[in-house]
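Standup, Tuesday
Yesterday: got the pipeline producing structure tokens again.
Today: sanity-check two examples.
Blockers: none.

Example 1:
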Amino acid sequence: MNAPIAIVIHGGSGRLYKEEMPPEKEEAYKSALTAAVQEGYAILKEGGTAVAAVEASIRMLEDSPLFNAGKGAVFSSDGLNELDAAIMDGKTMKAGSVAGTRTIRNPITAARAVMEQSEHVMLTGAGADGFAAASGLQIVDPSYFKIEERWEQIQQLKQQEQASGKQSKYGTVGAVALDRSGSLAAGTSTGGMLNKKWGRIGDTPVIGAGTYANQISAVSCTGYGEFFIRYTVARDIAALMEYKNLSVEEASREVLFNKVTRAGGAGGVITLDVKGNMAALHSTEGMFWASMIKDNPCQVNVCNMIIE
């Protein structure tokens, strides 16, 4: 089979700045998204797997301080960086995820290792960190994740929340890909919700909630994780495509707007089908995303993202 190769990535959804995004910030986000999507697409073009492409693109986003994943992870209420990630191979239906990790430089690579090198699907906390170290993955001191801008962000938010009781912010990165063999894969990585408490874990590492792939579609989500868990958003989109033959756009819109948004949640999804059709939808004020499909020019969307 010689399927049309395709990859779509996202860098989170929501409201980031109160005012319009400064031009230099917009350019930085565009450059990071473009480099990440091109990295994954190059792997697909050379005949690599969808899983490899997803991992490669997400690793680049994890290594950037711009996004809430890996290096740019936000802080918990305890002043810690606790990272989650998941990956799923639609061809084999195998999946792996890690949650609450503190020393793994690239959680998406750890998630892939769980999928391919263990009999498990999800590992958490110190156990996930230990598995990654034993597997030869790159381990870093927790100080690696301490970016001054993020640290100031948590201090400011704590002051604001004491005054207003307002909810914390969230963000995620993810990718979905289709390789030449017609296989799909999805992956997602996050630092979780800013100022999260009590070891909170969102939808990202929960297979079927924030991440899902089968032989028909691949989905990665971003947003208010509790709603994406309750409505098993990623799997629900895939099921509508599988059992009701809805298009990527129809299925994504039905679940995101008619279920999650009506229930009070907010966020975004990227969805890809086995023919290379894609959807990138959000119910928030904006979403970062980029795509490369069937040798068409790279598309990058950051302009409607407002930062708070």
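Example 2:
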Amino acid sequence: MMVADFIIKYGEDILSSSIFNSSLRRFLLKPVSVAALKIMGWRRVGGIPEFPQAVVIGAYHTSNWDFVFTLLFAFDIGLPVRWMGKDSLFKRGFGGVMRWLGGIPIDRSRSKNVVEASIRELVAGSIKYLVIAPEGTRGRANRWKSGFYHIAIGAKVPIVMGFLDYKRKVGGLGPFIIPTNDMKADMAKIAEFYRTVTAKYPAKTTLP
């Protein structure tokens, strides 16, 4: 297909609200992502979950490379994700690009509103798989933020453990849990899995 023909056929789709709604994801980004991960020596684990919606933990988050690999694995899997990022990432002319890549700007001073809005969007079906980095920073955090858990409880969706293991060069989707309202017990199960995962900068990691 000539470049001009490609633009004519997919031009409107390319300008859709999110790259994950675009034909680019299926016809271009998946094979490119598969090739890029292979060249860099990474292996993907997991596929499309058996349930139509979920909150996906994005851990660990210690480097800007985490964002790149998360997108590559999402394209490889074919997972239509939306992800939360601090609102400063969406300023300085990058807002449109970040939103097109599935980003949702978050004002951390209004965490309760963020949880409530996320629940509404999941319940309405506007979001299928919501990726949240519970550490909330690339630096070492004192603890994980619990918003992802409350969103899953409120929307009545599972929590999937997304991960990037830099030591083994393996990433993708791990096990899932159905939150039970016993947050302490559920967080213990989540922590058990992430103890086996090595971040790019292990010294910056924090367990739930």
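Quick observation on example 2: DSSP finds seven helices and seven strands in the chain. Strands lie at 43-45, 54-59, 81-86, 103-106, 129-132, 159-165, 170-177.
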